[in-house]
Each structure stands twice: as structure tokens, then as C-alpha cells.
Amino acid sequence: MQLKKLITLSKVTAVAIITSNALYAENYVAVEYLQYDENDNRVSVSAPSLSVSYDIGTDYNLKIDVVNDAVSGASPVWQPDSGSGASSRDNSGDYVYDNESFDESRTAGSIMLTTRLDNRDELYTGIDYSRETDFDSKSASVEYLHYTDASHNRSINVGVAYTYNEILSYDYDDTGSGASQKETGTSINVQAGISQILSDSSALKAELFTIIDDGYLNNPHTTVIRDYSTNKRLDNDKRPDKRLAYGVNLKYNTLITDDLVYKANYRFYTDDWNIDSHTLDNDLYYELNKDITLGAGLRYYTQSEADFYNASKDFFTSQTYASSDERLSSFDALTYKASVDYKITDKLSYNLGAQFYSQSTGLDATFFTTGLKYRY
Q1: Residue 77: exposed, middle, or buried by beta-carbon count in 10 A (0-12, 13-18, 19+)?
Q2: CA 69, CA 51: separation in Å to the nearest integer?
Q3: Which domains does the chain have, with CATH numbers?
Q4: N or C: which terminal CB in the chain sees fewer CB atoms within 10 Å?
């Protein structure tokens, strides 16, 4: 649930956005508010955030981001059907796939230090922390960017990130105990890429990545029904404790005219859970005048379903792995995007953004963001 931040357009940023983020860093303080709402009174998220970037001399840049999410609503899960007489997680009645209410809050923060070396190569080191009632996540990352020539027309980058998660899981067995215990999981993300400035108005970046997940990878909030025809009972979502994924990212930016920038991004992802996905992002930014930049975009996403996914209540029996989480299902999605960035003064700007998300499963959602950015 992220809404991409707007960028101010120029010939410099059109090329630099996919070659080096730090080379054109600036000092600023930005505050933003995001509101996310799903249809059918499902999930609603309110998320104010603060971002600070500061250049320490010419060789260092420090960037700090803090966000606090308030999440509420209801997620569809298998649960006892009170109308059928079911009162626990055993076979005393039937089950229904219905919304289960929740309220949650999340506090997250990140720190990124960019170091510019004597040869003007760049080293990025970062740490991230996120905390919820039943989920803690800590991560550290490092990335090195090397320019292959003095003109900075080409660069290569290599990076790795390590994440350690602690998850509170619930035991949905046929006793209805609902006992909880803490589980752990890790993720390693490795990526390598090359960026090339094609001309004074266009640039291309290609990047390969692999993700290695290990440990507790289940969704502790979803359930499946087992042995429905004989001894129906609710059971935990159960997934493999390992996942290997890899893929490619391709980015292309070009200035169509002095006032119009086009950004394209294609991402292919595949893993050993049998999920393949394709993402195609298209964005246009138009400088209406020296103070106002308009944005519009369309994002298409499609994925295949995991080997162990099924939404039926009479499917799972003795299968080792089982999940009814629709995020593991096969679906397509479209996201329509619009934005406006208004330069109030040379130092102060205001942004407003909106997105509409429509998924083939029937899930629709809206994103709205608004914020102020002060450069100093």
C-alpha cells in the first residue's frame, strides 16, 4: 500500500532518476498523509509520514523516514457460521468465508546514509524497523554504485538486504484453543544492475534480483477448512518454510518534449511456489508551467496462483501445504494514477495524488495522498 512520491521534472531528473539518486540529493523536510480504503468496508489505512534529507558536506547525505499507520476494517477468512450452530473451531457446525474485524497500528522508520567516495562512486547503507502488535521487522541493506566513466553516462550497482521478522502466530486447531506463539523468518534480497544514459533526454536501467525467504512464511490471520466431507475443522494457513524467487526490472525514462516526461517500468517475478507475475508501469509528467506539474499513469499487474492455494471449503484434506489467502491466487489488476505538484515558492511545494485500484477478484481500493515539501 504505497503511493509513489512525485518528482519535479527537468532534463536532469529525467535521466538521473534511474542512474543515481544520491548525486542530485537535496536538503528537504517533507510531510505527507496517505488515506487508503478498500470496497465492502474492508481495510482502511490512515498513514501520516515525515521525511528528512540532509547533505553533510559534499560527501554524505542522510535520509530519515518515519510513518505511523492506523489500520482498521475486516479481512475475509474462513470462520464458524454462527447461523449453523458452529461455536468453535471443530465440526459442531458449518463454516463461512466472511469478514473478520480488526484494528491495528504500525510504526516504521528508516535511515539511509549515502557516501560519495573520492572517485565519486556511491555507497548506500540503510536500516529499517517496523513494529505492529503481532509483527516486528528489522532490516539492513548495503548497495554500491560504480560509474564506469568520468562522464557518469554508465553505472553498475550491486546490493544486498537482510530482513529478520518476528511474527505472533495463532494455533487454530480443533480444540479451539487459539494459543499463540512467536515465530521467526528471514529474507535475503540480492540485486545487480546496469544503467545507461542513452542521450541527453533518455536513460535505461536493467536489474536482476533474487529473494531467499526462510522460516515462518505463513499468514497467521488466514485459515483453511480440512476434511470437510468427513470431519470438517478449521486449520492454520500452512506454507513451505522456504521460498526462492528471482526476476528482472527494466526502467526507461525519456523526455518527449521539454515539458513532457515518460517513465516506463517492467518487472518480471517468479518463485518456486509457482507464482509468476508481470508488472507494467507507465507514467507521464507534464510541466504545465514553472509552478505546476501534472502526472497521470496506468499500472497493470498479473500473477499466477501458488501451488497450494484454493478458495473452496471442501478442497483440503491431507495436503501438507494449504492456503485460502487470495493474495496467492491468480488475478489481474489495474491501477489508474493522477497527481499534481504545485510549487508555492522556490523552497515550498505541495503535492496531491490519487489512485484507483481494481482487481479481478472483486477487490477495489482508492489511495489519496497530500503533502508539503520544504527545501532548504
Answers
A1: buried
A2: 15
A3: 11-375 (2.40.160.40)
A4: C
